[in-house]
Amino acid sequence: MKSGFVLSLLLTFSVVSVSAQETINWVTFEKAVELAQKEPRPIIMDVYTDWCGWCKKMDATTFANPKIAAYVNQYFYAVKFNAEQKEPINFREREFKFIPNGQRGYHELAAELMQGKLSYPTIVYLDKELNLIQPIAGFQTPEAIEPIINFFGSDKYRSMTWEAFSAEFKSNL
After folding, report:
1. Do residues 44 and 36 touch, judged by C-beta distance below 8 A?
2. Each residue of 67-91: pLDDT tens digit?
3. Which of 80, 82, 137, 167 has its C-alpha lying 20 to 30 A from 57's C-alpha?
């Protein structure tokens, strides 16, 4: 009887600890722009497609990391953006639309922010004024993305080089 109670108690604590782990608070691009205008914060934008295997792997590993999620939630507005979405988006007095191309296509906003290099996944960073800082293409592990989000999230990119920053960066993972 006691072992059943202990097992039940352990399972309860396991469920609570798993559910207590932080996850990224993803919002739409339009919502992030709205939030940034009220309370300025940079935007981190995960540009993906439904068919991209590396995008799914990044969701399951990098973005699922509780320390990465906590940092992103504290310092950024996080946008998950399907590069093949059909809905138009108005941004900076321009309407960005879906452009059919063969069996698929692409969204003009994704192409604009990725500087014409449609590669998935790509993480796009915008500053507090919604200006493009930099798109970074390719799968990134938690260890690879941690210094990048710290560089942009702390605004260190404004005052020091990436080389100087990465030389002094200490991981929290």
Report:
1. no
2. 999 999 999 999 999 999 999 999 9
3. 167
Of 16-25, 72-81, 150-159, give the lowest mean pLDDT range.
16-25
Verdict on whether the full-model pTM lies above 0.85: yes
Domain locations along the chain: 20-168
Nearest to 78 by CA among 115, 41, 119, 131: 41
Q: Which of 82, 76, 3 is nearest to 40 (CA)?
A: 76
d(CA 107, CA 52) in angstroms, rounded, equals: 16
For residue 26, report the phi and psi dihedrals to the nearest 5 degrees: -75, 140
* Residue-wise DSSP of the chain: -HHHHHHHHHHHHHHHHHHHS----EE-HHHHHHHHHHS---EEEEEE-TT-HHHHHHHHTTTT-HHHHHHHHHH-EEEEEETT--S-EEETTEEE-EEEETTEEEEHHHHHHTTT---SSEEEEE-TTS-EEEEEES---HHHHHHHHHHHHTTGGGTS-HHHHHHH-----
Contact 61, 142 (CB under 8 A): yes
**20-168 under CATH 3.40.30.10, yes or no:** yes
